[in-house]
Recover the amino acids of this structure.
C-alpha cells in the first residue's frame, strides 16, 4: 500500500480547467497512491462533500476550520485536513473523526490486519503557539492509547524542523517520541539532508513533514521517499510504502472463559443472604479429621495426616463453590445492560415481548388486533432502543453523576475504570509462532526457563520446635479476608474474595484449623500451590510480537493470599531491613527516596564538591532469587523453623501454567524467584538483598551527613550508589558485582548508567571510566529514576516538562472519554487524574519560563475538560468548581510532604530533617524554597 502526505496550500475541488490545473500535483498523486493525506486544504465545511468527486476511484473525508453558515469569512479559510482512499478499500475502511479541525484518520482492517492512519496539521513554529503544539501532541498520545489498533501511523505537516537543532518544535517532537516509545520513522528512513519545504521568500529549506509510528507500524514500512520532482509549490509530497503483510494480525477476543465465573456485581442482597445460609449448611456437613487435628507433633511424618488436612481444605473449597451454583447460573443468563435501558426501554421491551408471544401463540396472523399490537409495540421498542443508542454517552454520563450524588463512590469509580479500560486484542503470532496452543507452549518454555535459571537445591528443615504461634485463630482469618479487595481476579479454584466475605462464619474456624494443620505438618494442597501466569502487554506502542514486550501477571488462589497475610503477622518482626531500603515500608515512598537523594547530593554541591552516581539495573531481580540462599537468610534471622519449612515446601512444590487467550499451557515447577504480586514476595526480596545494603554501608566511602555516611539508596530492586570520589564509586560498584556473583543477581550494564554531578570547577575535568562486572558503564546527562527525571546539572526543568506533558495527555484522555459528563463528574475526574502532581514539591531549581509552561498546562487542562476557550479566566473556573489553583495545590502538596518528612522515623530522613543530627535543615535550598512557597504571597 502506498500512502502520500502532502500540504496542498489550497485544494480546489471543482472540475474546471483552472481547478484541474491548480491541483495538478494532487491528481498525479491520486494516480500513484492508495491513500492520500492532505493538509491546508482551505476548504469550508460545506465543501467537504466534494472530496468524493475529486477522482473516480477515490472517496474522501475531511475536517474544516470554518462553517460558512455561522459567519461571514474575509480572506482565505485557514487550515483544514482531508484524507482520500481508493474505493477498492471501501469495505475495509472506517473514517476516524476526532472532533477537531486539524486531524482526520482511517482505520483499515484487511484480513485481520488492522492499522490506523492519522493525518494531522500542526501549528507553525512560534513561542506563542508552543503550548498549543504540546497540547496537540498530547491529544495524539491520548488517541493512540485509546485506540484498539496497535499499528498507528501519524503523518502530516508537523511544522517541526528536524534539520535545525535550534527548532523548538523539532526538539519537542524528538523528546515526545522518545518519552512515549514512538518511532520517528521519517528521521530513521530518510537521510539527514532531507527537506520537505522551500521558503518562497528566502529560498531556504526545512524538514517539516514527518511520520511517527508505533513499533509495529514502523516495522511494516518498506521505505519513505520525498518526491522532489513534484516540488511545484513550497511543500513537497512524501510517500510511504507499507507492507500490509508485516502488520500484526490480531485475534478477536472470545468473551467465553475457560470456566464460568460468578459476577458478584449482578447478585442481589437476597441472593447473598441465600448464599450465606447455604454455605452454613454445606460447611456444617464438612467432616473433620479428628486424629489429624489432635496431632501436635511438628515433626510428624504421618502422610495420612497430611492427606487428611489437604482433603479437609478441598472439602471446604467445594462447599463454598457448590453453595454459589444457583448464583452462577443466574449470573450467566444475564447480559450487560445498556445505559438508559431501565429508564427508557425496559417497559417497551416487555410490552413488545408480551405482544409477540400472544401473536405467536395465535398462529402468527398477518392481520387483526394481535398483529397490529405486535407491530406497534415492536416499533415503539425499536424507537426507544434507537434513543439510548444515540444518547448512550450522555446517559452513561448521567449515570456517573447519579452515582456521585448518591455517594456511591465504589460504583462510580468502577464505572470510570470500565470506561477508561481499552483492552488490546492479542496478536496471532509471537516471535513467529502462530496458533494459541503453540503460543501458550512458547510462553511455557520462556517462563519455565526463566524461573529455573538459577542452580539451587531443595531445602530440608528438621527438628522443628512446637510453639504457640503455630495455632491460627478464626479472628486472624477474618482480619486477613478484610484486607483483600473485592473484584479481584481469582486463581484456578475460581474462589473470589466475595465467596469468602459473604460465606457463613463457620468458614473462619474451619480455615483456622486447616491452616494450623498446614503449619504443624509443613504441607499445602495442590490448589494452593497452583498459579496462573497471564502475559500482558507492557507498551502497546512497542512490538506486539516480541516476548520482551510482555510482563506476567500471577493469579493465585485468594485463600492462599489469606494464608500469606496470616504468615506475615508472624514473619514481619524478622523481616526488618536496612534504612537505605525505602521499598514496601509503611510511611515511606518513592518521593521520600528521591528527596533523600536530592538533599544528599545538594549538600555536597553547596560545598562545591562534585558527586558521582550510578543507577544500577538488575535483570529480572525478583525472578532470579535463589530459594536455598533466601531460606538460609531467614534461618540466620531467627525465623521459626516451622515457617521456613512451610515456605520451602510452598516454593519447591508450586506449579505454574500460562494462560494465553482461553488456552492453558502444561504446568511446570519453578526453582527460583519470588512471585511478583504475592503478599510476602516484596518482604522476602528485601531480605534477600539486605546484605548488599549492609556490605555497601561497611565501605568507607560516601557522602557524610551529620555523623553518618550514606552511599546508596534502594527502592525494591532500584538501586542508586553515590560517592564524592571517583575511586569511591568504583569501590561501591565492585561490592555490587561481588554480591551479584554470590547471590545470582544479574546486572544489566547497558541499562545501568553513571552520572557525574559536577561543580563549575570540574566541568572540564576528565574522570576515569567506571565498570560493573567488568563492563564499562555509559555516562548519561539525564535519567528517569523512580518516575522522576534527574539531570547532571541538578535542575528540575526536565521533570517539570514531564509533568506538564502528562497534564496535557491526561486532560485530552478525559476530554475524549468523558466530555458528555456533568461538571461534578468532571471535577472529580480532574482531582483524581490531574492534581496528584507526582514529585512536584521537590522542584526548586528551575527556569521561570519552564515553570510558567507548567502553570499554563494546569490551567489549560481544566479549561479543556470543561470545554471553555483558552482566554477564559482560569482562576474563576477553579473557584466556582472548588478545585485548587496550581499554586494552592503546590502549597498543599509541599506542606503534606514536609509533615511526612518531619514525622518519619527513617534514620536517613531524620539525618536530613532533624537539626539535632545535622545542619541540612538550615542549609537546604529545597527547604528554603518550601518556606518561601508556604509563607510568601
Amino acid at each position: 500500500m502506498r500512502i502520500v502526505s502532502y500540504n496542498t496550500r489550497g485544494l480546489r475541488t471543482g472540475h474546471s480547467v483552472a481547478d484541474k490545473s491548480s491541483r495538478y500535483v494532487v491528481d498525479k498523486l491520486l494516480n500513484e497512491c492508495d491513500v492520500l493525506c492532505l493538509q491546508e486544504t482551505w476548504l469550508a465545511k460545506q465543501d467537504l462533500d466534494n472530496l468524493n468527486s475529486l477522482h473516480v476511484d477515490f472517496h474522501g473525508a475531511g475536517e474544516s476550520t470554518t462553517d460558512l453558515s455561522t459567519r461571514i469569512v474575509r480572506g482565505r479559510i485557514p487550515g483544514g485536513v482531508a484524507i482520500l482512499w481508493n474505493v477498492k478499500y471501501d469495505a475495509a475502511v472506517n473514517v476516524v473523526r476526532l472532533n477537531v479541525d486539524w486531524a482526520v484518520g482511517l482505520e483499515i482492517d484487511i484480513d485481520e490486519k488492522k492499522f490506523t492512519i492519522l493525518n494531522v496539521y500542526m501549528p507553525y513554529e512560534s513561542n506563542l503557539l508552543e503550548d498549543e503544539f504540546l497540547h496537540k501532541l498530547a491529544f495524539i498520545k491520548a488517541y493512540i492509547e485509546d485506540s484498539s489498533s496497535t499499528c498507528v501511523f501519524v503523518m502530516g505537516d508537523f511544522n517541526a524542523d528536524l534539520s535545525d537543532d535550534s527548532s523548538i518544535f523539532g526538539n519537542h517532537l524528538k523528546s515526545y517520541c522518545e518519552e512515549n516509545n514512538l518511532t520517528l520513522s521519517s528521521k530513521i528512513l530518510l537521510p539527514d539532508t532531507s527537506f520537505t519545504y522551500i521558503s518562497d521568500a528566502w529560498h531556504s529549506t526545512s524538514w517539516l513533514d514527518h511520520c511517527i509510528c508505533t513499533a509495529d507500524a514502523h516495522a511494516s514500512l518498506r521505505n519513505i521517499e520525498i518526491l522532489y520532482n513534484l516540488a511545484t509549490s513550497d511543500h513537497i509530497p512524501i510517500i510511504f510504502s507499507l507492507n500490509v503483510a508485516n502488520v500484526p494480525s490480531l485475534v478477536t477476543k472470545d468473551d467465553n472463559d475457560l470456566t464460568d465465573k460468578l459476577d458478584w456485581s449482578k447478585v442481589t442482597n437476597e441472593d447473598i443472604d441465600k448464599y450465606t445460609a447455604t454455605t452454613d449448611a454445606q460447611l456444617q456437613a464438612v467432616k473433620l479429621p479428628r486424629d489429624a487435628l489432635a496431632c501436635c507433633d511438628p515433626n510428624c511424618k504421618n502422610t495420612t495426616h497430611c492427606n487428611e488436612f489437604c482433603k479437609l481444605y478441598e472439602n471446604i473449597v467445594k462447599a463454598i463453590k457448590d453453595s454459589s451454583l444457583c448464583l452462577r447460573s443466574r449470573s450467566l443468563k444475564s447480559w450487560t445492560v445498556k445505559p438508559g435501558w431501565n429508564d427508557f426501554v425496559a417497559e417497551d421491551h416487555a410490552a413488545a415481548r408480551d405482544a409477540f408471544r400472544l401473536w405467536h401463540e395465535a398462529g402468527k396472523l398477518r392481520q387483526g388486533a394481535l398483529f397490529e399490537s405486535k407491530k406497534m409495540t415492536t416499533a415503539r421498542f425499536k424507537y426507544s432502543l434507537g434513543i439510548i443508542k444515540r444518547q448512550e454517552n450522555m446517559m452513561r454520563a448521567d449515570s456517573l453523576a447519579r452515582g456521585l450524588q448518591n455517594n456511591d463512590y465504589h460504583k462510580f469509580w468502577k464505572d470510570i475504570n470500565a470506561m477508561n479500560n481499552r483492552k488490546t486484542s492479542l496478536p496471532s503470532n509471537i516471535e513467529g509462532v502462530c496458533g494459541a496452543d503453540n503460543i501458550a507452549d512458547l510462553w511455557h518454555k520462556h517462563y519455565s526457563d526463566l524461573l529455573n535459571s538459577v542452580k539451587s537445591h531443595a531445602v530440608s528443615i528438621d527438628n522443628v520446635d512446637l510453639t504457640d504461634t503455630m495455632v491460627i485463630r478464626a479472628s486472624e482469618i477474618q482480619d486477613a479476608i478484610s484486607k483483600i479487595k473485592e473484584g479481584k481476579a481469582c486463581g484456578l479454584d475460581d474462589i473470589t474474595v466475595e465467596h469468602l466475605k459473604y460465606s457463613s462464619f463457620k468458614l473462619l474456624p474451619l480455615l483456622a484449623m486447616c491452616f494450623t494443620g498446614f503449619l504443624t505438618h509443613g504441607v499445602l494442597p495442590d490448589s494452593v500451590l497452583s498459579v496462573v501466569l497471564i502475559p500482558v502487554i507492557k507498551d502497546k506502542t512497542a512490538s506486539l510480537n516480541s516476548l520482551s514486550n510482555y510482563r506476567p501477571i500471577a493469579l493465585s488462589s485468594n485463600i492462599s493470599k489469606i494464608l500469606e497475610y496470616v504468615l506475615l503477622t508472624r514473619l514481619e518482626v524478622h523481616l526488618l531491613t536496612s534504612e537505605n531500603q525505602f521499598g514496601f515500608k509503611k510511611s515511606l515512598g518513592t518521593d521520600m527516596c528521591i528527596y533523600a537523594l536530592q538533599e544528599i547530593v545538594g549538600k555536597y554541591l553547596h560545598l562545591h564538591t562534585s558527586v558521582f552516581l550510578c543507577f544500577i539495573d538488575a535483570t529480572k531481580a525478583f525472578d532470579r532469587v535463589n530459594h536455598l540462599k533466601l531460606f538460609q537468610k531467614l534461618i540466620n534471622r531467627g525465623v521459626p523453623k516451622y515457617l521456613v519449612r512451610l515456605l520451602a515446601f510452598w516454593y519447591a512444590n508450586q506449579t505454574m501454567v500460562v494462560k494465553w487467550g482461553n488456552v492453558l499451557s502444561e504446568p511446570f515447577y519453578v526453582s527460583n524467584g519470588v512471585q511478583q504480586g504475592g503478599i510476602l514476595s516484596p518482604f522476602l526480596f528485601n531480605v534477600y538483598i539486605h546484605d548488599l545494603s549492609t556490605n555497601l554501608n561497611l565501605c568507607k566511602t560516601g557522602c557524610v551527613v551529620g555523623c553518618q555516611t550514606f552511599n546508596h539508596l534502594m527502592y525494591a530492586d532500584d538501586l542508586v550508589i553515590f560517592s564524592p570520589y571517583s575511586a569511591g564509586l568504583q569501590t561501591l560498584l565492585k561490592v555490587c558485582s561481588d554480591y551479584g556473583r554470590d547471590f545470582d543477581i544479574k546486572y544489566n550494564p547497558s541499562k545501568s548508567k553513571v552520572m557525574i554531578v559536577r561543580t563549575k570547577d570540574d566541568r572540564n575535568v576528565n574522570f576515569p571510566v567506571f565498570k560493573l562486572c567488568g563492563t564499562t558503564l555509559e555516562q548519561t546527562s539525564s535519567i528517569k529514576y523512580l518516575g522522576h527525571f534527574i539531570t547532571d546539572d541538578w535542575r528540575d526543568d526536565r521533570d517539570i516538562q514531564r509533568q506538564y506533558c502528562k497534564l496535557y495527555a491526561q486532560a485530552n484522555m478525559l476530554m475524549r472519554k468523558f466530555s458528555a459528563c456533568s461538571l461534578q463528574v468532571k471535577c472529580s475526574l480532574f482531582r483524581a487524574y490531574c492534581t496528584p502532581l507526582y514529585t512536584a514539591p521537590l522542584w526548586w531549581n528551575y527556569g521561570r519560563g519552564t515553570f510558567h509552561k507548567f502553570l499554563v498546562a494546569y490551567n489549560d487542562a481544566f479549561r479543556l475538560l470543561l470545554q471553555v476557550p483558552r482566554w477564559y479566566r482560569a482562576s474563576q473556573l477553579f473557584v466556582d468548581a472548588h478545585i485548587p489553583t496550581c499554586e494552592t495545590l503546590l502549597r498543599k502538596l509541599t506542606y503534606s510532604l514536609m509533615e511526612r518528612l518531619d514525622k518519619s522515623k527513617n534514620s536517613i530522613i531524620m539525618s536530613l530533617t532533624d537539626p539535632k543530627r545535622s545542619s541540612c535543615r538550615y542549609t537546604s535550598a529545597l527547604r528554603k524554597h518550601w518556606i518561601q512557597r508556604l509563607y510568601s504571597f
